[in-house]
Design a protein that fits this description.
By secondary structure, the chain is mainly α. It is built from four helices and no strands. α1 (2-19) packs across α2 (31-43) and α1 (2-19) crosses α4.
Length: 115
């Protein structure tokens, strides 16, 4: 369960940051689609529109690096209980912000169907 929570935290905290760089797709697209396009742009090296095993590994590594840079305060390469608590708190805050932006609806409201 902790591993699942950490993965969810990493995805919610890290992926939007990957999509937020200059040149990210403009308005009119949902967050999920903007993130997908940006991740493909950065990591789809063979330009086939999909992430193969090595490309997924590179994307995952970049995501973990971002999360560790943000939350591994003591720099030991691991998230302590306190650091994990901070990461999960940031996840809860992000969910709350998404809920408020969608008029009190859940974080998936308006994101469209899962791909």
């Amino acid at each position: 369960m902790k591993k699942l929570m950490l993965i969810a935290a990493m995805a919610l905290i890290g992926l939007p940051a990957l999509a937020a760089d200059e040149g990210a797709p403009g308005p009119g697209k949902g967050l999920r689609e903007r993130i997908r396009e940006r991740v493909l742009e950065k990591f789809d090296k063979d330009a086939d529109g999909k992430l193969g095993p090595q490309e997924r590994a590179a994307a995952r590594e970049a995501l973990v690096d971002r999360v560790m840079q943000r939350f591994d305060k003591d720099g030991d390469g691991k998230l302590s209980r306190e650091e994990l608590t901070q990461a999960l708190g940031a996840l809860r805050q992000k969910f709350q912000e998404l809920r408020e932006r969608r008029g009190g609806q859940g974080p998936r409201a308006g994101l469209g169907p899962r791909a």
